[in-house]
Amino acid sequence: MSRTLMNRIQRLAAALLLAAGLAACDSGPSFHSTDITGAGFGQDFRLNDPDGQPRSLADFRGKAVMVFFGFTQCPDVCPTALIRAAEVKHLLGDQAGRLQVIFVTLDPERDTPAVLREYTTAFGADFLGLYTTLEDTRSLADEFRIFYRKVPTGGSYTMDHTATSYVYDPAGALRLAVPHAQDAASVAADLQTLLQSFPVR
Question: Within this chain, do residues 97 and 139 fall inside the same structural domain, yes or no?
Fold first, then answer.
């Protein structure tokens, strides 16, 4: 093999290694949850807290925000999601105060402000339950790509609904979709990765 050809091969190999390194740098952080950075849905919300005060994502700027849609009479999925959120906060240690957990009711007919407050604070003192009107709940769910429907059960009803949690970074950008089956440790690791990108000032 000629020296000229060898030099060309070495230069090409170096260029490929450099390109691979740049691609790795551009790929951003790796998450256990589904990375939905840049998604065109769920950009914001305007809901009421149990005191009747309007809330939006801007109120939580500087914190990561985990949002889950459900209903307080849910027998298993909703409490499991909120128990996991509480464990995630515990695993975050001294970073726990930088995560806001929000529970949005899909059942405003039964989930009154008082019921929401009692329900969410049972999982975490700073967990927040939010609601809107029945009509606007449907619009909100559509905006966030959340499926839900009433299922009659004798003289009452339960609800089928999407069990995904969403996570926003401290700048208010939607970043992660967390499957219901994902464990708390990997969710906490994802939150730590996000928070490291937004150091406290």
Answer: yes
